[in-house]
Amino acid sequence: MTSVVRLSSTVVVTGFLLAAVWTLGVVVVGGCTTRRPVIAVDGSSTLYPISEALAEEFRDFGLAHVTVGVSGTGGGFRKFCRGDVALIGASRPIRPSEASDCLAHDRDYIELPIAYDGIAVVVHRSNTWVDALTVDELRRIWSPRTGTDERVERWSDLRPGWPARTIRLYGPGLDSGTYDYFTKAIVGSEGASRADYTSSEDDNMLVRGVAHDPDALAFFGLAYYAENRDKLRLIAIDDNDDSNGVGPVAPSLETIRSGSYQPLTRPIFIYADKVQSRRPEVRAFVNYYLERGPRIASEIGYVPLPFDAYVSVRHDFWSGLGGSRFGGQGSTIGVSVEQLLAHSERGRPDKAMAPATW
Amino acid sequence: MADTPTSRRERTFERLLLACASVSVATTLAIVLVLVIETLRFFAEVPLLRFVTDVEWRPRFAEPSFGIWPLVLGTCLTTVVALAVAAPLGLLSAVYLVEYASNRVRRILRPTLDLLAAVPTIVYGYFALAVINPFLQGIIPGLATYNPLSPGIAIGIMITPLVSSLGSDAIDAVPENLREAAYALGASRLATIVNVVLPGAATAIGGAVLLGVSRAMGETMIVAVAGGQQPRLSLDLRIPIETMTAFIVRAAEGDTPAGTLAYRTLFAVGTTLFLMTFTTNLIARRLMRRSRLA
User: Is the pLDDT of residue A352 over 60?
Assistant: First the structure.
């Protein structure tokens, strides 16, 4: 009996101690963080390296705490339209279904192009047989299996003389804008592809997969190739259209800027919530994004837009120009800078959106 | 027995204990309830027949297909590999600990073995990916980066302490006089273990192994990290697969809004997994109980 009493009193005392420590922890930690507002950023893994770098720099100003998630462009738009996040990275323009979802939630957005990206098609370092692939060959590899089509399972199914080993495919998951764009550009419509490939929203997992698999073929944003160029081999792509570069073209700063790496060059965006953009800290962060983003983008392997373009993109943000320049049609192939900027408004900027220092 | 302060305290204490115990029951019931409701909603949209007759699992592609078998097979592959590692390793170490080890060795070895169970599963996942797999790639040609083999081995290592400690309980439970009778008949130590102790403990050992199986089937982090994300109906251990748990992780990785079909597939897969582990657990418990009665 006494031992039970002693035991229970020990339990009670321990419980009180734990509760006290917890309360103290909440007070201390809460005191440090609650003073700063939180800006939630999410979306594409292609934009993630830029957003994360900027979020870290921005934290140092002490204006706000920026959290960056990676749920893919599709997952990002779902959260964005529900109002869970203020800003998302998108590696393709908004789709009709997403536009109507945002409309249903009464959410207006500002579409801001950040840079150009080339989707890199890569193989293992030891793969010496593939130097270039045509768009048609890529389509035959990735198109959905409908039963009647010829199946490309092995390298030798593509070109005689290549090894008779199974091609192991790695690619972004279904929430990814890179996947949407790739299927649209290569197969012909968004989301149409074979299902038996290793997919992940985490591009680093794909890099790891290819880096250790001699029969692998993968695609993802160019930045992830640039970061791992010692482990991967980049494949040149031939679109059989000599007007934008003759023969196979590999993605690089020059070929992406000149538009000759087609059809896998695409603009990447951030989408800002129009209402949340009126919060001073969100406004400051988006301004900072447009100011510093191009620099970061080019450091990690993307191609910035021309300088003038950012002037009008910033202008779009300050004037709160809503809607999408692609009419909410999702992935659009071969977009030039002129087309990107055709949407821009050259009116009087909204004073409320401009940075204080301007 | 009047209403003395002592008896009142007793009763309060008893009620407190009852409340604590019922929390687990209530939680289990709530989980089952949610699983059943969402799964029924799933089968309202996708006929059960397609779930069990389709041979492809691609629920979110342009032309969806809802065959559960690739995921079940993925889970079975990793579990079989894990079992191939954990059953011999666990049982042999159990035999050693009970029959051979001196008290001092046992005092050191047992906690060390149990330490394996304390390693976080994410660590095992990256251990499989960064250590086991490169090693295996040197031996097995054509082994992909992600495959059921290396996470299976990691799961096997992880559940070895479980199998070993339940197994040694089973071996311990074999009455001492049976061993002495065998020795009296002139049997060697090895002959006694093989012919008397292990057969005597067989049912309980079966239970121990099955509990390990159920743990291996539900293992999530290791297969999500090292198993690949590619549901496939193939017995090839060298290529990427996807287990049921890894699918749930991946599907929840992006953003799956409640109320959509994609969201309900999570519950359908979860229910299938739950049924599998539940059945294995049930059989394991029954085996262990039966051995105790004998």
Answer: no
Distance, CA of A82 to CA of B264 (rounded, Å)? 20
- Partners of B144 on chain A (C-beta within 8 Å) are 168, 209, 212-213, 215-216
Comparing alpha-carbon positions, the chain B residue that sits nearest to A72 is: B254
**The pLDDT of residue A148:** 58
**CB A200, CB A224: distance < 8 Å:** no
Residue B144: strand, helix, or coil: coil
B255 touches chain A (CB under 8 A): yes
Q: For residue range A28-70, what is the model confidence (pLDDT) as tens digits?
A: 665 555 568 899 999 998 899 999 999 999 988 888 899 999 8
Tokens of A248: 């196979």
pLDDT digits (tens, 9 = 90+) for A157-206: 899 899 999 899 999 988 888 999 999 999 888 888 888 888 888 888 99
How many structural domains comprise chain B? 2
CATH of domain A118-258: 3.40.190.10
Q: What is the 3-state secondary structure (H, E, C) of A87-111?
A: EEEECCCCCHHHHHHHHHCCCCEEE
Q: Give residue B163's domain range.
A: 65-293
Does B137 contact chain A (CB < 8 Å)?
A: yes
- B86 plus B196 within the same structural domain: yes
* Range list for CATH 3.40.190.10 in chain A: 15-116+266-353, 118-258
CB contact under 8 A, A76 and B250: no
User: Do both B117 and B188 map to the same domain?
Assistant: yes
Coil, strand or helix: which one is A77?
Answer: helix
| B144 and A CB contact within 8 Å | yes
Of A189, A201, A212, the CB nearest to B254: A201
**CB–CB of B62 and A144 under 8 A?**
yes
Mutate to test the interface with A, among B133, B255, B263, B265 (most CBs of A within 10 A): B255
State yes or no: ipTM above 0.85: no
For chain B, give the percent of residues with pLDDT over 70: 97
At A81-105, the pLDDT tens digits run: 999 999 999 999 998 888 999 999 9
Helix (H, G, I), strand (E, B) or coil at B147: coil
Smallest CA–CA distance from B233 into chain A, residue: A196
- The angle at the Cα of A168, spanning A163 to A170, to the nearest 5 degrees, equals 140
Chain B residues inside the 8 Å CB shell of A82: 257
Contact A76 B255 (CB under 8 A): yes
Instruction: List all residues 6 or more positions away from A264 whose beta carbon is below 8 Å from its beta carbon.
Output: A118, A119, A121, A181, A182, A185, A186, A219, A237, A251
* Mean pLDDT along residues B250-255: 73
CATH fold group of domain A15-116+266-353: D-Maltodextrin-Binding Protein; domain 2 (3.40.190)
CA B189 to chain centre: 32
Is B257 in the A-facing interface, judged by CB distances under 8 Å? yes
